[in-house]
Design a protein that fits this description.
The protein is an alpha/beta fold. About 45% of the residues lie in helices and about 15% in strands. The protein has a single domain (about 1-180), classed as P-loop containing nucleotide triphosphate hydrolases (Rossmann fold, 3-Layer(aba) Sandwich). Helix 2 links the parallel strand 2 (about 30-35) and strand 3. The protein is globular.
Length: about 180
């Protein structure tokens, strides 16, 4: 699995779909997956993640969302085990966050789409991802700090992961899949 995690409106879906398109163009098996915020009353924040593992999936949200949006649902030991399952499948984890939290708050407050969560909850989630990314020394993780773009670089969306970075992610993920015979 190639997992793309982060708070809302940072470009996770756009990045995931771009990666899926590129891999499909290469003629390799790939699927796009998107995970909504699970119902805390029925979702097992440990074993249910194992059931969802798919070595061919580019997954938009996964287990780190269980930490960012659901308090005390994944103890540290379980997080280590889930990460181990992901890495054992040749997985990579991409964390997107905005280190400029003031900018992110303004960005999310101006967003015209209907978000499921309030802007304070999304800002709290972004802070979690920022802390996770900046304090994680996991060699499997990729981090993309979504910085506010300059006025002279107008884009529809604030994230810009360049082609070199995308190709690097794809190469690393395919190398891990190949090593496992997937």
């Amino acid at each position: 699995m190639l997992l793309i995690e982060g708070s809302d409106n940072l470009g996770k879906t756009m990045l995931a779909k771009k990666i899926v398109r590129k891999i499909a163009e290469m003629g390799l098996p790939v699927v796009y997956g998107w995970m909504t915020r699970p119902d805390e009353n029925v979702f097992d924040f440990f074993l249910d993640y194992k059931k969802l593992l798919n070595p061919y999936a580019v997954q938009d949200r996964f287990h780190l969302s269980g930490l960012a949006y659901h308090e005390n649902k994944i103890p540290p030991r379980n997080l280590q085990m889930i990460n181990g399952w992901i890495h054992g499948e040749g997985g990579l984890i991409v964390v997107m966050y905005a280190s400029d939290e003031t900018w992110y708050e303004e960005h999310i407050r101006k967003d015209t789409r209907k978000n499921i969560l309030s802007w304070p909850a999304l800002c709290t989630a972004n802070s979690f991802y920022k802390q996770y990314a900046e304090n994680s020394y996991n060699k499997y993780d990729y981090r993309f700090d979504v910085l506010p773009f300059q006025a002279d670089q107008p884009r529809k969306h604030p994230v810009y992961v360049n082609e070199r970075q995308i190709n690097g992610l794809i190469c690393e993920w395919l190398k891990k899949r190949k090593a496992l015979g997937v």
